[in-house]
Amino acid sequence: MRYLLFVSLAIGLEGFSPIHYVHPALSSDCLESSVPKFSSVLFASSVDVVGHHISGLLFLKVMPDSSRRAVFSNEAGITYFDFEWKKNGEFKTYHVIKKLRKRIVLNTLRKDFELMLVPPALIKSIEKKGADGGYSAVRKREKLMFKTTADCRSIVSVDVIGRKSKLVTVRFFPEGKNIPDSVSIVHFNFNMKIGLKRLAQ
Amino acid sequence: MRSLATILLTATSFCSICQNFKPVGNEETFKKQLEAESKKITSIKSDFVQEKVMTMLTEKIVSSGEFNFKRTDKVRIEYKTPYAYLMIINGNQMFSKDGNKENRINVSSNKMFRQVNRIIVDCVQGTILYNKDFSSEIFESESLYLLELTPQNKTLKDFFQTIRVQVEKKDYSVSQIELNEPGGDKTIMRFSNKHFNQAVNDEIFTLR
Fold first, then answer.
1. Per residue in A34-54, pLDDT tens?
2. Hey, is the C-beta of B23 within 8 angstroms of any chain A C-beta?
3. Residue of A95, A65, A47 lying closest to B182 (CA atoms)
4. Which residues of chain A neighbour B96 with C-beta distances below 8 Å?
5. Which residues contact A109 (CB under 8 A, 6 or more apart)?
6. Looking at this predicted complex, what is its ipTM?
7. Touching check for A193 and chain B: CB below 8 Å?
8. Number of neighbours of residue B175 by Cβ within 10 angstroms
9. Which of residues 25-54 of B touch A (CB under 8 A)?
């Protein structure tokens, strides 16, 4: 169970100053229509972090009030964490096991899964459409770069950029499918990969 | 008509919930009887259906697979749908496999896994009531015993509020294990199509 100690995640996520990515004003409608639209979805999940491997199930649900929930459990059903992103941008932790109750761990998990759920508050923060067809947003000290398909049907990738370099890339597969069959989340400033594969419910 | 049949079938499958349980008369006698009867079971092969109930989300995740036990300390739990996941306990060794990724854990060097290992093995061995990690209450209905276990140590309390184990009166085999979490979620594992004391190859309790 010591695998769950992501203490070593405390590398390089601090110390970035705000970046404002300004481009000529364009609508973010394309990104909104690209955001995965589901009432609930279940993924088989594997997490490889600093040499350790954890697997489990990630259940995502859009609640009637438009808030988003993410529940991660192991295959035997034990819940590791239960997060909520409210419509107004507030984040709430309903449940988290003791081993994960560390600020840096919770922040990393929250920020990673937020990029999959793209809650309404995050969409509101989208600034402009870039010359490369992407959208950007500022999340505290990071810049988020969203790339959508040309037909605005789905998100292709999200890059998280720090002050000096890329920190995280989220990729959605296959391209063009609004609710992805699989998702990969790769961290570049420390060794962590999350793989998600959609399951039939 | 089909919907009526569905309702009846559903009601039947959950009738254990509405069983009228009352405390057993003599707990010590029951403990010894459970242990003695369980010892007669040298192996179990069964199917299982697992249902994770997320109370606040009003959602369920249902999975199923095959369960194998060989006395004294070999357990194989293989989830087949909707995901493939294999967990093997073989003495002090615990293996898991998800996709192509294999994990080997030395249970003796990891307290949490050691406790989980003990719970699973104790449940099928009939010795769970002697597990000092739990306090217990024992109930019975016409056809079942219900063992309600409450964790006594901090590590287990973080994961479980109670564990409820249903034991068949007719053969003292476990019919259902219910894991109740502190946050209100619960996971119910129901065993069916049970075969006892058949020859079981040791090889299934190793990763190949």
1. 889 999 999 999 999 887 888
2. no
3. A95
4. 55
5. A72, A81, A83, A100
6. 0.83
7. no
8. 21
9. 50, 52, 54
Read off the pLDDT band of B18 (50, 70, 90).
low
pLDDT: which is higher, A80 or B5? A80
Q: Count other C-beta atoms under 10 Å from residue A45's C-beta.
A: 24
Do residues B48 and B66 touch, judged by C-beta distance below 8 A?
yes
Ranges assigned E (strand) in chain B: 22-23, 43-54, 59-70, 74-81, 85-90, 93-98, 101-106, 134-140, 144-151, 162-168, 174-180, 186-196
B132 in A contact zone (CB under 8 Å): no
SS3 category, A122: helix
Is residue A7 pLDDT above 50, yes or no? no
Are the CB atoms for A112 and A194 separated by under 8 Å? Answer: yes
What's the CATH number for A14-199? 2.50.20
Hey, is the C-beta of A73 within 8 angstroms of any chain B C-beta? yes
Return d(Cα B110, Cα B102) in angstroms, integer: 17
Given a contact cutoff of 8 angstroms between Cβ atoms, the answer to whether A116 and A60 are in contact is yes
Q: How does A127-152 read in b/e, with b if 16+ C-beta sit within 10 Å?
A: bbbbeeebbbbeeeebbbbbbbbeee
CA separation for the pair B155, B4 (Å, rounded): 45
Q: What is the pLDDT of residue B123?
A: 84
Q: What is the pLDDT of residue A132?
A: 65
Domain ranges in chain A are 14-199
**Where are the domains positioned within chain B?**
21-205
Cα gap B202→B13, rounded to integer Å: 33
pLDDT band of B11, cuts 50, 70, 90: very low
Residue numbers in A near B63 (CB within 8 A): 75
CATH of domain B21-205: 2.50.20.10
First vs last Cα of chain B: how many Å apart?
49
pLDDT digits over A70-94, tens only?
999 999 898 999 999 998 889 999 9
Give the integer Cα–Cα distance in Å for B119 and B128. Answer: 7
CA torsion angle for A158, A159, A162, A163 (degrees, to 10)? -120
Q: Alpha carbon of B146 to those of A61, B153, B189: distances in Å?
A: 34, 22, 14
pLDDT computed for residue B168 by the predictor: 93
Tokens matching residue B75: 């357990």
pLDDT digits (tens, 9 = 90+) for B130-154: 888 899 999 999 999 999 999 998 8
